[in-house]
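To: structure subgroup
Subject: Chain for Friday's discussion

All,

I'm putting the inputs and outputs inline so they're searchable in the archive.
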Amino acid sequence: MSPKEVLALIREKQVRAVDLRFVDLPGTWQHFTIPATMLEEATFEEGLGFDGSSLRGWQAINESDMLVIPQADTAFIDPFFKDVTLAMICAIQDPLTRQDYSRDPRNVARKAVNYMMSSGIADTAYFGPELEFFIFDSARFDQNQYSGYYFLDSDEGAWNSGREEPGGNLGYKIRYKEGYFPVPPADSLQDIRSDMMLALMEAGIIIEAQHHEVATGGQCEIDMKFAPLVQMADNVMKYKYIVKNVAKKHGKTVTFMPKPLFQDNGTGMHVHTSLWKGGTNLFSGSGYAGLSDAGLYAIGGLLRHAPAICAFTNPTTNSYKRLVPGYEAPVNLAYSRRNRSASIRIPMYSANPKAKRIEFRCPDPSANPYLAFSVMLMAVLDGIKHKMKPGEPLDKDIYDLEPEELAKVPKAPGTLDEALTNLEKDHEFLLQGDVFTRDVIKTWTHYKRIKEVDAIRLRPHPYEFHLYYDI
């Protein structure tokens, strides 16, 4: 869609307001709204000013002026506002230099794609993330100097099987780790997920399927069709926004936290990816699991840099409550054509060369998609460029391995702090083509340590009272 077409759509749909959106460094959408009459064709070139100093990880107070540049091809009608509102995702520029802002995550993603094209390796990088989430009926939490707690609830949660309910408890609570694909009445969220699916489609996102996921208490998944990197990152932001707001309309709440429930499956974002050039899938070949040499080198790059990649793909302290053995979590830095406990899987559903791809299973949906997909692409390109061999595949059942053999399999980081340390040691591959700058890496690690790692480290945990109060 061009600027002229956006203005025509505004007239056709009698749009009254235009919502301008952009993503902060951690990965949350921000916005402000202008009257539709204020949007002109020149706005798509000249942009609109705003204060960037109050956004997480962005400008200092003495250099706060920034520009939003609306991207016409991202326009969609927002289904949640009372008045007809057209939303657009924006690029961010410095008003003095008119250069794209280096800490704008969407700009990082655009630079990653440009670097890929300039390398001559590929002209398109497709990404297909599988976002999981929980739909809860209630979520209460607080922490202060003298208390801390959280309470989650779901009508279908296994913990409510004995609860007194209005009209009587009808049973059909989903047992722990048995939530994959049951039909109603056990699956109580079918209609809500369908509303989410249809709203996503109305916003221009192609949906392949929706279903209940493994965990009790409302774990769900809606699958989008793959798309080029920047477009898919845009779609992830739309996805989170639409899913949360549809849930709110139903009186429920959605979280993309990686591990909200203890002792049940966490929430992942398995990411499928492939590189193409001239309409040909570069990952399809005659090697292991139908992969080409480029596909195997891509795996080698992801495995080589995985401990650093996790600082972006698993960027919260809660992420590492999920990356633990025993819940299908991909803690083993290995690859396999079927083994879901390996961090990289090669799906074998189809023999069609166009379907050949690799699936990186470490990421979770707390990630900023622009940064997560970009670090994956940079690792893949580094692997291909330097012909990084991935070693032997891990096709055995992880849980049947002898301890001595299992000890030889590298593991994903165990904490966010560990992942950040790995990023500090291994980030040269991200600096290629000026995709990530040293300033972005430094800002990311500093922000995460001060605002998240230390914030959690310094506070007493409720379970510590159970362990230590009577010492």
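Points worth raising on Friday:
The chain has a mean pLDDT of 94.
The longest strand covers residues 124-136.

D.
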